[in-house]
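Hi there,

I know you've been waiting on this one. I reran it after we fixed the sequence typo, so this is the corrected version. Both the input and the resulting structure follow.
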Amino acid sequence: MKNFLFLFIATAVLVACSPKVTETETADAMSAEAATGKSVFSQKCKKCHDLPVVDSYSKEKWDKILPVMSEKAKLIESERGQVEVYINWELEH
């Protein structure tokens, strides 16, 4: 019983002393627009081919790929922008 009480108190102290970080406080948190872009990328791009690993290509290469693939996938302008935000986020992280 003493071991249980010690373990409980030790756990409570560790939890209470740990820093509180929310998703919005982390620099790496994906924005809502990037998250939507990831969803569009996942849903629309995989209809025709396997999803590419974003960081397999440079920003310059994506700047050439995205317009062509956006047209083929029939993305509307807002979807294309969201995918671009997602790709840029992935390349930065």
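Quick highlight: The longest helix spans residues 2-17.

Best,
R. S.
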